[in-house]
Specification:
alpha+beta, 168 residues, two-stranded antiparallel sheet
Length: 168
Amino acid sequence: IQRDVVTKTRYEYDRVFTPSSVQEEIFKEVQPLCISVLDGYNICIFAYGQTGSGKTYTMQGSDAISMHWGVSPRAVYEIFRLINQMKDKWEYTVQFCMLEIYNETIRDLLISSDKMKKCDKPLDVRQTTDGNVVPGLTEEIVNSPDQVYDLMKKANGNRAVGSHDMNE
């Protein structure tokens, strides 16, 4: 006789945010990572969840006023603020790229959808001695938060937009 075995999985979180949490509160949790970038580390901040759960708002916020900025624009502003603070000691080159993983496919968001369709090779993550890279991903050198924001707007215009039953 085989009985169904119920297993319990224990998850641990550093912090759980409530629906009443504000953008500034969320950014304060990841703000220390900005200095890590300038120390030479690659970082990745991402939101994960089902459709309609608030990932885009958490990451991008709204353009209206800075108190509604999401994690991404706040991190960009913070990195350039820190670069400006250290400009007498260090020189930095900032490169920007933006991708999305949609239906298990890596999509370069700095190229138009038409060009994306014409690409003969899909993008893949490769492990190298320098870390994980995505060969062929478009990278732009940027010198200010405004340049980054312009590229983010372009990239957001190239995001895949899908409708799922969950949207209904």
